[in-house]
Amino acid sequence: MLLSRKNLPQISATVPVQLPNPSVFELPERILQFGTGVLLRGLCDYFVDKANQQGVFNGRIVVVKSTGSDTSEFDRQDQLFTQVIRGLGEDGQPIEEYIVNASISRTLAAPSQWAEILACASNPEMQIVTSNTTEIGIQLDETEDLQATPPKSFPGKLTAFLYARWKAFNGSAESGMVIVPTELVPDNGTNLRKIVLELARRGNLEADFIHWLETANSFCNSLVDRIVPGKPNATDQAEYQQKLGYEDGLLCVSEVYRLWAIEGDEKVKSVLSFDAVDCDEANALGVIIKTDIDRYRELKLRLLNGSHTLTCGLNYLSGKNAVRESMVDPVSSRYVKELMFEELAPAIPYPIELEVARTYGASLLNRFSNPFLEHKLLSITLYYTSKMKTRNVPLLLKHYEQTGTAPERFALGFAAYVLFMKAVKEEGGKYFGERNGESYLIQDEPAGWYFDWWSRQGELSEVLGNTDFWGTDLNALPGFGERVAFYLNKLQESPEAAFEAALS
Fold this sequence. Notes:
alpha/beta; 6-stranded parallel β-sheet; 4-stranded mixed β-sheet; globular
């Protein structure tokens, strides 16, 4: 039996399942969400659904699928999906919840349903835009055409949507939107606002529209923090299906911890009312809406995401496939702890007490050890270079500002990144590396550049000096190139030798 609205009454599970209240299906569409990924569904949509079930927010989501035109995965299930929440409580006892999420009303494909997406702009109930288009999503496309159906980039699509909104309501101040990007880049809302305004000017759109953009809309910086791995493996999927008694191709699994920190004023808070059902500011849990969220963002971006980026390639090349495997191994778990506590926490480029950072880091080690999550290392390597730049390079620069010396564990993680980017073959524009005779796909835009660099045995200084990659010349950091070269040689000897050298 397939999960669908019609089949909800027939569900007979062997575990408690929270099913949606039938009244939820009658709620108006209030959110336009760019992105179909598990992070949006497992965190943002989780909060919306939780509020709806308690009669608080009372609104549903129109999801925009930006690439491809096939929405059948969502349509066949009437947009329903199951969220499994698994982890350990503070008392060490396992937590296991099953929720059928009914927050999504429609999924529309931008390439084939752009007119329907623009029509949402005329809905007076539609007040919110959310997004998660990865780190590379919030960038200015110099060739953007706002008249295209659809525009190429996410900022282009958003600008066209807001223009349709402005025209539909004759530029009324009340028709302004609350826009909350969740892409993991600093000042995501501020940067998105700048790009939208620039696109509007380049598109020669009316001055009154630009004024409306600036004064009637709230572009909110935000931070999301919840580990939501990709689709469960076949074994786990079959186990969940047996427990639930139905098939769900959209099922996602998440940890217990959840945080959505949003920078906003009282007006934003009144629109995003779902914070009323899950907010624990003292413990940084739930939806937290404040005028300054930098503290939350820096802790998460630098320690959780920063450590993931510096360890994913290293642990994968050493034979591991998931984060939890890395935490079981005494050597790699010691490495991530020392990296986080000794090199990353002291170098956070924001005034945070070291003990606060280390306390947060200790909680991360527990989360990384969650025995119920299969957080694949290869999935973390997606957009490897841009993640290294935004998450880790600021830490490296701050470390040098404080100490003037090369951080050993950081240098090992960076060397592993360089080695991971070594493609051994190219097929149809895709590049593949090799681990122990097994090929893996390198899902990163500079893969072609590295393929050429490795093929001609280029100098490491070319990598470090590529300002397009890092925004700065890393050759200028005394001793960093030498330590990266040292660990690159050690890794090619064996990952074990590299770990031993960094931890000695």
